[in-house]
Amino acid sequence: MSYQHQYVDGTRIHFPLGKVVCVGRNYAEHAKELGNPIPTEPLLFIKPGSCVVPLEGGFKIPTERGSVHYEAEIAVLLGKPLSAHPTKEEVLDAISGYAPALDLTLRDVQTKLREQGFPWESAKCFDGACVLPPFVVASSFEDVTDIGIRLTINGEVRQDGNSAMMLNAIVPIIQHMASHFSLHPGDVILTGTPAGVGPFNVGDELVLELPGVSRFESRVL
């Protein structure tokens, strides 16, 4: 898709956006708050690039389809292809940037589909289901095992996590993904959400940030 932002790390521009590869239940406390078992290996699912919308200027949620939950996540942008079994060095070299992202979930729809044993793409892949601000360059972080993620809604901190809390760290997650399917420049990795998820309401004012590195204000339209 044609996305409204260019993501630049000084050498590579990724345009258009590729697929969005997500890992579920990657923070133990988040799994517990939803009553889900902790997986023994990364739980993967994919959102199409068409579901991505920009954070700037506000974004809409499909309130007519029930409760829309926010999930703040560290997003990773790839600038080089990865496949088979990449080394740690190859993964780090392929990462172009990081951003705080919102993975939106139609929670009522997801619950109903799960109860029936059906796939739940319609709860995760709707238009606007992934909200992204611009990325900062990968060199902004010396240690990828120490990246914060924070979401504040109407002046109240709702989610406050760190990549150090992940059950599966960023590099091993991407290695695991690449061992199952090829990753391409422009693909985005969503690395899971910490505890504190809940419903958005129209009119909510929010701050989404990688604390100390990038901070963005927006609102739910």
**Portion of residues within helices:** 10-25%
For the CA atoms, what is the radius of gyration? 16 Å
What structural class do you assign from the helix and strand content? alpha+beta
Order of helices and strands: EEEHEEEEHEEHHEEEEHEEEE
What sort of overall outline do the alpha carbons produce when their principal axes are compared? globular
* Major sheet: 8 strands, mixed
Give the number of DSSP strands: 17
Low-pLDDT residue spans? 1-15
Head-to-tail CA distance between termini: 23 Å
SS field, number of helical segments = 5
The chain-level mean pLDDT equals 90
Provide the β-strand percentage band. Answer: 25-35%
Protein name: 2-keto-4-pentenoate hydratase/2-oxohepta-3-ene-1,7-dioic acid hydratase in catechol pathway
Organism: Pseudomonas hunanensis
